[in-house]
Amino acid sequence: MHADLIIVGAGMVGSTLALALQDSGLDILLLDRGPLEVAPWSPEAPFEPRVSALSAASQRILERLGAWDGIRARRAAPYGEMQVWDGSGTGQIRFAAASVHAEVLGHIVENRVVQDALLERLAGSGIGLLPAVRLDGLRRSGDGWLVSLGDGRQLRAPLLVAADGANSTIRRLAGCTTREWDYLHHAIVTSVRCAEAHRRTAWQRFTDDGPLAFLPLERDGDRHWCSIVWSTTPEQAGRLMALDDTAFAKALGNAFEWRLGAVLEVDPRHCIPLRQRHARRYVEPGLALIGDAAHVIHPLAGQGVNLGFLDAATLAEVLLHARGRGERLAELRVLSRFERRRMPHNLAMMAAMEGFERLFQADPLPLRWLRNTGLKWMDKLPGGKALFVRQALGLSGDLPELARA
Fold this sequence. Notes:
Elements: E1 5-8, H1 12-20, E2 28-31, E3 51-54, H2 56-64, H3 68-74, E4 77-79, E5 81-86, E6 92-96, E7 106-110, H4 111-123, E8 128-130, E9 135-141, E10 144-149, E11 154-157, E12 159-162, H5 169-173, E13 178-194, E14 201-206, E15 211-216, E16 225-232, H6 234-242, H7 245-255, E17 263-266, E18 270-279, E19 283-284, E20 287-289, E21 295-296, H8 304-324, H9 332-361, H10 365-379, H11 382-393
């Protein structure tokens, strides 16, 4: 089977790339190990444990690809404020969408909801979908790639895109090298119902062991639910996972300083080891890495999937412009345009998240004083906060056309 482009990984990022190229005239195959089926939806369904904080730039991309209506038809929780404070001091800072005349800072959306909305759009797109496949091999073949599947089929294409996640099979089989290290932290994720409504605010407390986030969720107008991302040491994570729901709810409320009152209900918990990873190159001749296959950052600000959406939109833009000029899409000089636009932005975001994580883990008294003083000082600078908000919303920087206001 031959195609112009093979995208491996039909998650949120890979599906976005495929949809962004659906009118390009390219013969596209989108592969995934999953079934690629839209799950039955019920408004009363329990929350999925994995969520994303979608920025305004990501929302624009999804709107222009026709997927945002499908997300809103299910559920998405907008938030207009963010409050961050240091649990070891008195420093705190508040960000508001109103500071840049925006209605919201973003939306907290379950990953499954985003995925299903994208799959609905893919169903009528004309893009070739190959669900439930296993990759058995990958090798260069002439001017392109030969992909061997577990059922014996072989696929050929001059251009291959790896969108298959943090543990990318394509990245490994292609021999792409990465820089990576363990954060020595695990993230506990779940959904909880609190005694007080979240007021459409994203909350984050930096504890001695790691950041704790309460991200707003909504179900049938009920704003007492939050998605929890609790980053802590492996030892502490093990102790917390061993608690029953009542004891965990008490420990969680205490760690959060009871900002939303008592934690009344706790959904099933999941524990995820945290590891940072960044590919040394995003591209080779005939190959591009996007999303988590190229970079994995700390979930501190929920920016991972936003970086992935911008990767997909930028790569699609580069390929469409090159095709319009009659260039060969698999050439390194074409693909390098994508890398030059995305790598500096991704590295800057990774460095910022790493700096925050290290600063708030620091124990020496001078650093504690510095971070508390810095938070208080920054909170009194409307211009500085507005700049941060504009960056988080995706209102500045080198944005692809799909993400521009």
